[in-house]
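Q: My hope is that you can spare some time for a protein that puzzles me. Underneath my words sits a plain record pairing an amino acid chain with its backbone structure tokens. Those tokens are not coordinates but codes from a learned vocabulary of shapes. Thank you; the sequence and its tokens follow:
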Amino acid sequence: MTQRAKAQIIKSFRELLAKQSIDKITVKEICAQCNVNRQTFYYYFTDIMDIFKYVFFKELSCDIAQNRTFGTWEGGFLATMNYLKNNTKLVLHVYNSSYWPEANAFFAGLSNKLMLDVVDECIENLGVTITEKNKNFIINFYRRVFNGLFVDWVNEGMEEEPQVMLNKLLLMISGSIRRSVIAFVDYEKEGERKI
């Protein structure tokens, strides 16, 4: 199998997703559009969701990978928002489909990885330790904030500019990740008493 065939499959999938809901896209339709057989499709991908994850992860991970530090997470957030905005039709055709719960879980996983790296770096920079349970609590809190903003923004048609969204987010949480880590360090030192 050639990488050219894989590239053609991906291109066809993206073109179809720009025109219609992911619910309506079939493997047969992708194969017909790019002139490959079903066996070639299944050599690279297991199903429609697999190709979706491959395309979005490959495209998003490049921007996120270089922006998942404590000092640069804003860049990762902005890169993600810009990517979604630049691919509005594709995103809405997934959001308004039966695939959305699985896609949302996929995006949550990406956010989780971004926040894990940010929180780990913050802990390292502070020279402190906290339990995995409390570290995961911090990560989950911020992941839910970010994902909630993404989902609401998509639901509202992605009209607000990504930079405006980031500016508003920064007004709300600037310095709060660091403060959260310090608060949990203090919390653990005091025997996990009620805050």
